[in-house]
């Protein structure tokens, strides 16, 4: 269920590097060639990872009502979205991202944070990778919400000005 932030968030955008800009389901064999990306031959995502993650994050974090000055934007740079095999029969879904909260109408950075999440896969195949990565994206949504909510509360406690005032409410 989506949770609402205490300040307006106008948009959530997910951007990816070129190696994640396809529908290929990627994996790594950490026990053999940790730096080499491979793709499942017969398994594909329904859309590119950026689109899937963006949709999931928008469902997890409700945007608030913006005032006349617009609303803050959240840009998530997805660095890793792959199944990593630590052994022939042991794998995990890895999601790594950097989140940047941007001021309304500008690219001024209000705050940023890196996230690295891993979920064990229930099986050592594409289906197990999908399950683990889906859980990793859910975890990312929860951690993003917690981070943004904490930023809002800390700003209100420290300076008396929450993100609600900075983000155009």
SSE blueprint:
Blueprint: E1 3-4, E2 9-15, E3 24-29, E4 33-44, H1 49-60, E5 61-62, E6 72-87, E7 90-102, E8 109-120, H2 126-159, H3 163-166
Parallel strand pairs: 1-5, 2-6, 3-6
Antiparallel strand pairs: 3-4, 6-7, 7-8
Q: What about the largest sheet?
A: 6 strands, mixed
Distance between the termini: 23 Å
Mean pLDDT: 88
- Please count the helical segments: 3
Q: Please state the overall shape, judged from the principal axes of the Cα atoms.
A: elongated
H and E string: EEEEHEEEEHH
Indicate the proportion of strand residues: 35-45%
The count of DSSP E runs of length 2 or more, i.e. the number of strands, is 8
Structural class: alpha/beta
Helix percentage = 25-40%
Summarize the structure.
The chain is α/β, with parallel strands linked by helices and 169 residues long. The chain contains 3 helices and 8 strands, in the order E-E-E-E-H-E-E-E-E-H-H.
Any overview of this molecule?
By secondary structure, the chain is of the alpha/beta class. Helices cover 30% and strands 41% of the residues. It contains three helices and eight strands. Strands 2, 3, 4, 6, 7 and 8 form a six-stranded mixed sheet that branches. Strands 1-5 form a two-stranded parallel sheet. Helix 1 packs across helix 2 (126-159). The protein is elongated. The two termini are 23 Å apart. The model has no long low-confidence stretch (mean pLDDT 88).
Question: Which features characterize this protein?
Answer:
two-stranded parallel ribbon, 8 strands, alpha/beta, 41% strand, 6-stranded mixed β-sheet, 3 helices, 169 residues
């Amino acid at each position: 269920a989506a949770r609402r932030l205490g300040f307006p968030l106008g948009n959530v955008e997910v951007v990816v590097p070129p190696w994640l800009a396809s529908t290929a389901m990627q994996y790594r064999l950490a026990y053999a060639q940790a730096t080499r990306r491979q793709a499942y031959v017969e398994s594909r995502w329904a859309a590119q990872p950026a689109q899937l993650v963006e949709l999931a994050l928008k469902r997890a974090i409700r945007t608030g009502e913006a005032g006349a000055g617009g609303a803050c934007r959240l840009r998530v740079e997805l660095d890793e979205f792959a199944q990593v095999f630590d052994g022939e029969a042991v794998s995990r879904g890895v999601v790594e991202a950097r989140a940047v909260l941007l001021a309304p109408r500008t690219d001024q950075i209000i705050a940023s944070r890196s996230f690295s999440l891993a979920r064990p896969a229930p099986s050592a195949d594409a289906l197990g990778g999908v399950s683990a990565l889906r859980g990793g994206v859910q975890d990312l949504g929860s951690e993003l919400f917690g981070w943004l909510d904490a930023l809002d509360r800390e700003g209100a406690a420290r300076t008396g000005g929450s993100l609600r005032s900075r983000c155009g409410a």
